[in-house]
Amino acid sequence: MDYFIKLLLSGTAKGSIYALIALGYTMVYGIVKLINFAHGEVYMIGGFTALIVGGFLSTLGMSIPVVLLFSILASIIYSSAFGFTIERLAYRPLRNKSRLSALISAIGISMILQNFIMLAQTEKYLPFPSYLPDLPFLQPVREYINSTQFIILITTSFIMIILTIIIKFTRIGKAMRATSQDKQMAQLVGVNINQVISVTFVIGSSLAAIGGVLICSYMGQINYYIGFVAGIKAFVAAVLGGIGSIPGAVLGSFILGWTESLGTGFISSDYEDAYAFIILILILILKPDGILGKNQKQKV
What we know:
Blueprint: H1 2-32, H2 39-59, H3 64-91, H4 99-120, E1 126-127, H5 147-169, H6 171-181, H7 183-188, H8 193-219, E2 221-222, H9 226-241, H10 246-266, H11 272-286
Antiparallel strand pairs: 1-2
């Protein structure tokens, strides 16, 4: 039973990270009906930014909390800038074109960013220091959950609450919901849909950056390819919960995290990445709209 609880908590921590990335997928799809396959690379760039900024600040002798704070801020700013630029240059010109054109553009941007980071950094795995503090009050339950996992869970929960408040109660959140429902009608009532879509990309990129810092601190390493793997898994989580549904993205992420953790613990760790695709195949066969997805009928 103890072993099962350990695996469950580990899967919860993984699911929290997938949720931060999956939310970016589902927010963008909910508004512009686009699968942003470059989103995983934005997550990866956030991790590399934290590694570079954190390493520089550490050489100056700054304390760990200061290094962590500025590393996360730098990751959010840099990744948000990438997300904004990608939307502005690669997706906006194709917004009124076929979805296939935008999809191919997204895949192209993903490959460009992968190769850019590989050439700018290295193709090898780099050690990623853990800037997350050790929490003494977790000592009695340290065998079940460590400080890094606990911080990941708390951070993700806090971000989910803030994001929910923004979408439901703020002006930009109402504009997002209006744009998602009907872009033309939203424009008629004065909503600047270009601004709304740009803000959506910035928010999604910020969440991916935070996820990049947390997961790299958790895993202790980073390389140029982690964005592709994490991005695919987060996409599976979004589809599993119902693409376009924010609660569905969170639920799908936790289910994926639990499945991976329990699968590696009780079956084999050799197939850890395969579990995500097995789930994707099953959900597409049994419930194509996802767990919380709605079957939307379109007029012909």
